[in-house]
């Protein structure tokens, strides 16, 4: 796995192009701006040197310095900075070739980025990232094999233009920018790149507000169909979805996630978008679905595949039944639009954004851990308000 670098940028200290190897995330943030009094382990600092000759050929080198935890951070910085001119001289003379940095290709950089993110993103998100990259970025051999310092904004912009010309929405084009920016940013932070080529990609303006146009009567009809759907476990799945849960969150639920003693359930961090466990109140409707399915215990999926109880139900199976709901309703609606419907209805009824966030499982910097119990109560109360408006 690639090292994680944090730039050292302490005022009034010579720390140009010095980076701390931060694989265990001792330091948070993009830069170290204050010298720590003590580091509880041995540590490494990396000095990067760049030289551009008269022919404008750019050459880089780096050297890693190991320090004992007995060494203070400022002492280590002074020792590293004292080697800057020596390293530059060796680079100019060509006697430091063994330390020249090998610039990764775009494909190599992407694979390293995905490897770094594999424990931070859900499996579904990883698959989406890889599918998107393979289709729009890595499918061009010349670009995939190009060193990242040769990848220009102009080239990336041509891909964006191709996406738009193919009839895809600006939102899809924006996904390319949002996917590549953090990948290139790593190499800007460690000094490999001077700037991020994805920063200047131009995306046409578009309305990214989420709204679902459904009359009050149609909304009530939709919920009546869902709550009276004739087949299990799909009726139960629909009821969970109407409580603001994403489809993957619902299908990933296991009996061990249910706490009937406290009337709560937990969406594990690996199954949601916020990357931390989220706990919600069990409504009487949700408890009813569990009773219908037959309450169990252990790490078994609540909504398992018909052919293999060790696997969760496939999304496609649920969507087949969702299509039947839409046919009866006579409208076009995605499963995920249920969340937008809940959010829009609650905001229109005067609920605050924090209250809506508590229902949908979004996070806000204003919501701290000490309010977690309040959050559950607020979410439950907000849902009660929503159901009073849409249930017949």
TrEMBL record:
MF (Gene Ontology): DNA binding
Coiled-coil intervals: none
Keyword entries, A-Z: DNA integration, DNA recombination, DNA-binding
InterPro entries in the record: CB (IPR044068), DNA_brk_join_enz (IPR011010), Integrase-like_cat_sf (IPR013762), Integrase_catalytic (IPR002104), Integrase_recombinase_N (IPR010998), Integrase_SAM-like_N (IPR004107), Phage_Integrase (IPR050808)
PROSITE patterns: CB, TYR_RECOMBINASE
DNA-binding is among the record's keywords: yes
BP GO annotations: DNA integration; DNA recombination
PANTHER family: PROPHAGE INTEGRASE, PROPHAGE INTEGRASE INTS-RELATED
Name of the protein in its database record: Tyrosine recombinase XerD
Source organism of this protein record: Sulfurospirillum diekertiae
